[in-house]
TrEMBL record:
It comes from the Bacteria. Gene3D superfamilies: FhaA, phosphopeptide-binding domain (DUF3662). This is DUF3662 domain-containing protein. The lineage of its organism: Bacteria, Bacillati, Actinomycetota, Actinomycetes, Kitasatosporales. Residues 4-115 form the FhaA N-terminal domain. It comes from Streptomyces himalayensis subsp. himalayensis. Pfam families: FhaA_N (PF12401).
Length: 136
């Protein structure tokens, strides 16, 4: 039990460090947007089965992308881990293999990032398909 608790605390510290690097002014916005995208597109199939999209694309404005991905090449994997823990905590089932793609865009009309989700059986993210929700 002690090993599991230490592991959870370590993951929480990593998540906190990631949040601090993402947006210093409001560090929880990006992860909240990912979780909200997951929750908003959950489909209740039965009493014991709730499906959620499995492919997420996080679009970052150029300077934000350069800063985050340049220093932390594993950003997509860290965001994937956060979503995986969120789904496990809520009893969600992925529609296919879970992936989070981090992409660079020139301009976003409403801010510094946008989260797009899709349900794909093979985990391949199409360019700008699915529901688009800007979070500024």
């Amino acid at each position: 039990m002690g090993t599991l608790s230490r592991w959870e605390r370590t993951l929480e510290r990593w998540e906190s460090a990631l949040l601090d690097k993402v947006f210093r002014s409001d560090p929880v916005q990006l992860l909240d947007a990912l979780r909200r995208e997951c929750d908003d597109h959950a489909v209740v199939c039965s009493e014991s089965r709730v499906l959620v999209p499995n492919v997420y694309t996080v679009e970052l404005v150029g300077f934000v992308h350069d800063e985050l991905v340049g220093r932390r090449g594993e950003l997509g994997q860290e965001l994937t881990d956060v979503l995986d823990r969120h789904a496990e905590a809520n009893g969600y089932e992925w529609a296919g293999p879970l992936t989070v793609h981090v992409t660079k865009v020139r301009h976003l009309p409403a801010g510094r990032y946008r989260v797009v989700s899709n349900a794909r059986t093979h985990g391949i993210a199409p360019a700008h398909a699915g529901a688009v929700h800007p979070w500024a």
